[in-house]
Amino acid sequence: MRMRTLLPVALLTAAGLFAGVNTATAADKYPGFQCFKTKDRVEYCSDSKVKNHDAGVAWVKTCPNDIVGQINGKPYVAASRPNGAHSC
């Protein structure tokens, strides 16, 4: 009986879907590189770290409209600039 109860919790925790797991706020990630991926899975990141959310939004707005129009999902903050990331 106990295994039946623990298994779903363990699976949700491993997937990061259980409340409170891997839920660092954006404020915890700044300063960092502002990044996003396009529908074609091309990753774009700022050349330097941004200080806060407003600076990240400002950087995204510097990208050409055709690229911004292809953003897939929410932009995110990375602690280090991923290898191969493009710049706007």
Provide an overview of this structure:
With 88 residues, the protein is α+β, with helices and mostly antiparallel strands. The protein is built from four helices and three strands, in the order ααββααβ. A three-stranded antiparallel beta sheet has the order 2-1-3, covered by helices on one side. A hairpin with a 5-residue loop joins strand 1 and strand 2. It is globular and about 30 Å long. It starts with a helix and ends in a 10-residue tail after the last strand. About 23% of the residues have low confidence.
Task: Kindly list the characteristics that best describe this protein.
88 residues, alpha+beta, 34% helix
Helix content: 25-40%
Ranges where pLDDT stays below 50 over 5 or more residues in a row are 5-24
**Backbone shape:** globular
The SSE order reads: HHEEHHE
Strand content: 5-15%
Task: Report Rg.
Answer: 17 Å
Q: How far is the N terminus from the C terminus?
A: 54 Å
Tell me the number of strands: 3
Return the structural class.
alpha+beta
Oligomer: single chain
Largest sheet: 3 strands, antiparallel
Number of continuous helical runs: 4
Strand order across the largest sheet: 2-1-3
Mean pLDDT, to the nearest integer, reads 81
